[in-house]
Amino acid sequence: MSTEHLAAILPSKGGPLSVEPRPTPTPGPNELLIEVNSIALNPIDYNMRDKGFMIASYPAVVGSDIAGTVISTGSSVPSDAPQVGTRVAAFAPCFLKRGAPDYGAFQKKVLVPSANAVPLPDQVSFNEAALLPMAVQTTWAGWYSMGIPCDMTFKAGPNQGMLIWGGASSVGSTAIQTAHLLGFKVYATASTKHHDYLKNLGAKRIFDYKDENVIASIVKAVREDQVALYLGYDAVGALQPCEEVLKRLNGDGTKLVTTVPLRADSPKIAGVDTVFVAAPADEVQRTEFSRFVFGEWLQGKLATGAFKPCPGLRVVEGGFEGLDRGLDELRKGVSGVKLVVEV
Ligand SMILES: NC(=O)c1ccc[n+]([C@@H]2O[C@H](COP(=O)([O-])OP(=O)(O)OC[C@H]3O[C@@H](n4cnc5c(N)ncnc54)[C@H](OP(=O)(O)O)[C@@H]3O)[C@@H](O)[C@H]2O)c1
Fold first, then answer.
1. Which residue's alpha carbon is nearest to atom 32 within ligand 1?
2. Does residue 54 line the site of ligand 1, with CB under 6 A?
3. Which of 47, 109, 112, 188 is the most buried (most CB within 10 A)?
4. Best residue for ligand 1 mutational test, from 169, 173, 195, 276 (most atoms within 8 Å of Cβ)
């Protein structure tokens, strides 16, 4: 096996990335070494590149979403985890490892904990698979933060609703599918052009977030449908309208999770318990959480076709050399697509 591979290294805060060879690591006891075919881009990637967010030292390698093939396994990888030769999508632990070069997605060979990988059915391409890890992990971190159990038998009550703001985003579209599969009646927001697509993913009703009456329209629809909606998932940092919907419908006793960190000056409506999405902090519990999310829930839903990679995808040309351009484009904003780089 070659002892070096190509990587897009972040030499210092602000970048640009530098494509060069680096030593190929050997997996630790519970790790997989994955040969990468596709990388999907996330907002945290340009925050790490541009602001040094969560980076302990340089040079670093950033990136979280990969799809490829397992080429080597550590000595204690469980027998039910993906083995050598298995096509997988995997959540590279770049920010937990604070940019440590062996663990970032932006390279041809990446180390990941075995619990962070999901085997892929043949019909899911590497490009589609790369859309999955960050979005599915963040969505389930939201359900976990709400108190929804990591349990394949969980089913929402027959008339229980879920508000999802930012349904066309990577996280939001994943939250729509997941909430629908968990049995919730999903009320979501997105630009009108995405409404049909998001209904197909399982949303019951969709509203245009740019409509000045959007809050009143959601409240009216939920009441008409006689749905109990006291849980919300803010995928894009739209706290104020989410809190307003939950407050108007219920008064107190509601729960909102948000993907965007809360600040002292974040909007706050009394009676709505708003928390930042968070997977378990304890390492053992987090490993068990990831094993459930990827090795049990997602593996099962991909195998049956119940869950499909979403939203759309667009390939950024140029392989590793295209990563900086892709991150710049993502920072400007995308609509209903995730950017993917083939390497
Ligand atoms: N905490 C975590 O662990 C974590 C993990 C992943 C992501 N995040 C954060 O979550 C956010 C979403 O990430 P992502 O990758 O899913 O984003 P994304 O796919 O790049 O989001 C783009 C979409 O956001 C929608 N959008 C933007 N502003 C909106 C608004 N005010 N109301 C409704 N929709 C709006 C747009 O919808 P239209 O096309 O309909 O206009 C667009 O399609 C980012 O802030 C990211 O940093 C946090």
1. 166
2. no
3. 188
4. 169
Q: Which atom of ligand 1 is nearest to the CA of 171?
A: 16
Distance CA 307, CA 300 (A): 9
Give one DSSP letter per residue of 83-100, joined into a string: -TT-EEEEE--TTTTTT-
Task: Please report, in angstroms and rounded to a whole number, the separation of the first and last CA atoms in the chain.
Answer: 18
Could you say which residues of the chain have pLDDT below 50?
A: none
What is the 8-class DSSP label of residue 52?
A: -
Determine the topology of domain 136-276 in CATH: Rossmann fold (3.40.50)
pLDDT value, residue 205: 98
Residue 249 amino acid letter: L
> Given this model, what pLDDT does residue 199 score?
98
- Asked if residues 99 and 68 have their Cβ atoms less than 8 Å apart, the reply is no
Where do the domains of the chain lie? 4-131+311-342, 136-276
Which residue among 138, 144, 171 has the greatest number of ligand 1 atoms within 8 angstroms of its CB, and so is best to mutate?
A: 171
Predicted confidence at residue 267, as pLDDT, reads: 87
Contact 87, 130 (CB under 8 A): no
- Residue 212 burial (CB < 10 Å; 0-12/13-18/19+)? exposed
**pLDDT of res. 1:** 56
Atom 44, ligand 1: which residue's CA is nearest?
Answer: 236
CATH superfamily of 4-131+311-342: Medium-chain alcohol dehydrogenases, catalytic domain (3.90.180.10)
Cis status, amide bond into 11, omega within 30 of 0: no
**Is residue 156 within 8 Å of 238, Cβ to Cβ?**
no
Cα of 27 vs centre of ligand 1, distance in Å, is 33
3 state SS of 36: strand
The residues, ordered by sequence, that sit 6+ positions from 127 with a Cβ below 8 Å of its Cβ are 38, 67, 313, 315, 340, 342
